[in-house]
Amino acid sequence: MLFLPHGTGHTLADDPATAIAAAACSPDDAEVPGPHASDSVDRFGQGGAITVVLCGAYQLDPSRGHPLLLTLPNVIHLPADPARHPELHAAVQLLASEVGNPRPGISATAPALLDTLLMYILRIWLAEHPTRDGNGWAAALNDPPITAALHAVHRDPAAPWTVAKLAAEAGLSRATFARRFTSMAGQPPLGYLTWWRLTMAARLLRETEATLRSIAAQVGYTFEFAFANAFKRTYGLAPGTYRRRG
């Protein structure tokens, strides 16, 4: 399994000395945003051993990538080992089966399996590469109190969260939680909350027809005006303009 968190350009060949006959595909070539799969098959080679390469890609807004992704290397390589990573192996087999033999419902199953595959890759990488100083997102996602607070924010971004309420979710004192969260996540708890809310708002603007008032309420803003100001500070555009520009 190879994972390229930053969309690094690459080619695939059977040997480093093999001449590259065609340019590699770029995620930018995809016409449909989000995870997707195709049942098309490209055949290369001259009669040697058969290799099946299964690829998936996500299109991400580079300005809103999750901080976790920024900490990952250009290439993550997880060697094939069913005994070491049985869940990952099973997910690969399921996805290969779906794409290799398309049946009704593949438009739902393939994206769900891609999401599952990504989660297993990240779980394995984070577990096998702990940070030396105990800080950073890898440490945060392996820290039960901080993870509890993150789950709370992700589960209900519209809740009237305060540092004290998030500290209660984490089971820590306010001061200890704020210090620990900032050290691991690289920003204060309420700073991450705002980032998450506005990221969710941008997705709702792109993917739904919900009114600005409805979106503001879904991401925790009581007043549409306050939401619009916060959104413009972050994206440089008013929410309506952002939606019209796609």
Layout of helices and strands:
Elements: E1 2-3, H1 67-70, E2 76-77, H2 86-100, H3 106-128, H4 137-140, H5 144-155, H6 163-170, H7 174-185, H8 189-207, H9 212-218, H10 224-235, H11 239-244
Antiparallel strand pairs: 1-2
Mean pLDDT: 85
Strand content: under 5%
**Ends apart, CA distance between termini:** 33 Å
Q: Helical amount among residues, as a percent range?
A: 40-55%
Q: How many strands, which pairing sense, and closed or not: the largest β-sheet?
A: 2 strands, antiparallel
Computed over alpha carbons, the radius of gyration is 21 Å
Strand order of the largest sheet: 1-2
**What is the succession of H and E elements?**
EHEHHHHHHHHHH
Structure annotation, total helices: 11
Overall structural class, as computed from helix and strand content, comes to mainly alpha
Based on Cα principal axes, name the global outline: globular
Number of strands: 2
- State the low-pLDDT regions, or none: 23-37
Report on this structure.
The protein is globular. With 246 residues, it is mainly alpha-helical. Strands 1-2 form a two-stranded antiparallel ribbon. It has helices at residues 67-70, 86-100, 106-128, 137-140, 144-155, 163-170, 174-185, 189-207, 212-218, 224-235, 239-244, and strands spanning 2-3, 76-77. The chain starts with a strand and ends with a helix.
